[in-house]
Amino acid sequence: MDRIKRIEEMEKNLDASAAAIKKLGEALEEYEAAQKGYKKLCDYYGSSRWLNDFEADEAGKLPAGLKRGVLSEDAVFDLISENRELVVRMLKLSAGAIENGLL
């Protein structure tokens, strides 16, 4: 590979990496900001308060137009599962970066 092509390739790598790192940083900031609410959601899900709200919904005691995805048994469980998978993925990526001397 000649010098010009190599420099062009590395310049593309620099631009792509810089853009990806910036996006990831922004996404992590958003993720971190959501953690307090996520913790409250996890504590609520499966609690007696959740069960009482679920039963009230089943009995038709909640307004018809109320958004209530949180009362579905799958929505919160699926979110928790997805979060777990993402955290494991982040750990693996972090460990790989350390192993490969990318820090």
Describe this protein's structure:
With 103 residues, the chain is mostly helical. It folds into two domains: 1-33; 45-103, no CATH class. It is built from three helices and no strands. 0% of the residues are buried. The mean pLDDT is 96.
Structural topology:
Blueprint: H1 3-44, H2 48-58, H3 73-99
Mean pLDDT: 96
Strand count, sense and barrel status of the largest sheet are:
none
Which structural category fits the helices and strands? mainly alpha
Q: Which spans of ≥5 residues are poorly predicted at pLDDT below 50? A: none
Termini separation comes to 27 Å
Specify the helix fraction band. Answer: over 70%
Shape: elongated
Give the helix tally.
3
Number of strands: 0
Would you kindly provide a brief summary of this structure?
The protein has helices at 3-44, 48-58, 73-99.
Sum up the structure in keywords.
103 residues; mainly alpha; 2 domains; 3 helices; 78% helix; elongated
